[in-house]
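Input chain follows. Return structure tokens only.
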Amino acid sequence: MAEGTEFVTVERTAVAEVVIKKSRFIGQVVPVRSVEMAETALAEVRAAHKGARHHCFAYRVGLGVPVERYADDGEPGGTAGRPILEVLRRKDLRNVLGVVTRYFGGTLLGANGLVRAYTEATAAAVAAATPLSCQPMCQWTVHCDYAAFGKLEYQLTQLGHTLEEKVYAQGVSFSFWVPAIASAQTQTTLLEGSNGLADIHIGEAVYVGVTEDGHFVHDVVEDPGE
């Protein structure tokens, strides 16, 4: 995925458990913005399940070519971390940690059985998660007169925009988020709807997540200043 394009992560942590021959495999997928956040989240899972034998994981972090890391945490090589990573890759999830905690049930599963178990636990956690589509968006701030506001509100709503921070004073001020690739169409709508009189300020493009019900989630990528 080239920088500047859409990517998908998960909206919040999701957990799913599978039991195979009395071994419990607790899969989790966790949204993260950086490698440091992934390592911190992994440490928190380990602390929450101190009695577990294994905490196998994989994560994919970053735009462009993502940073990928995985580990088997004591399981035979290639039977745990890599299968977790492959599930994340198949779904093309970014900025996400996948971790599977195993409580040993007393029966050895063999290499193929372990691959299936870690794959199944991760896939179950991904299926339980709510996907979050993220893309570069700009916050637009607009000031117009009352005569133009009603028309602009209707037209922008028809285009799928949600108006925020409405202030009624000497004219109306409001803001809304626009995908960076849709700027030209939005500007045309504003200028035509206000007869060219709307005062428009366009903020810098930043990555924003949009939930399935249309709400915005910020801080989906690492701030370069952090």
